[in-house]
Amino acid sequence: MQSEPHPDAAGPTFRPWPQPLEGGWPAGYRVVVRRRALPAPDPGAAFLHLAEAILGWDLHRGSGLRVRADGPRAVPGAEVAVGVGLGPVRWYAPCRVLWSTEPVLDAAGQPVGGQRAGFGYEALPGHPESGQEGFYAELTEAGQVSFAVAAYSRPATRVLRLGRPAVEAVQELITRRYFASAARLAGGN
Q: Where's the DUF1990 domain (predicted)?
């Protein structure tokens, strides 16, 4: 099932294949766009594993984050709070899913080349940042699977603006963890 929201409602992270992830971001925000190819003996299976992990919140959990979500999958309108911290001490950052895209399968149940599956969410009040982030499993026409993250953000409050270097360091750490988690999950782990 494809979710095709109105582009204005979905925001800038809604980038259906083959739209590039680079460019077109709002001014005044820190933009992060990263992609990594994930070598796999069966790219179709790796793509499906990764897409399921993204849409089922396992990418976030596998990155060491705690997830409190409205439901088991990222669907438009769902609210989720992602917990960052150590042990029981967590800061939960609330978000709302703006769009989600399920994998497209052919008649034999295999993923069609040339697609993205994943979701994008926006920060809600109480989140340390304002902006959006998108998580993408990609399968090229040539059968290459990759994981991508595209985000734009800025501190939500004046206090956090003062601590911007620390906030950006935490964002970088989490982004690296997303990529490590994606590599494991694409392998079915």
A: 23-180
Instruction: For residues 36 and 138, give the distance between their C-alpha atoms in angstroms, rounded to a whole number.
Output: 10
- pLDDT, one tens digit per residue, over 97-147 is 999 999 999 999 999 999 999 999 999 999 999 999 999 999 999 999 999
User: pTM of this prediction?
Assistant: 0.93
* DSSP label of 105: B
Question: For 157, how many CA atoms within 13 A lie in the half-sphere containing its CB?
Answer: 8
Tens digit of each residue's pLDDT (9 = 90 or more) over 14-40: 999 999 999 999 999 999 999 999 999
Half-sphere CA count of 99, side-chain side, radius 13 A: 25
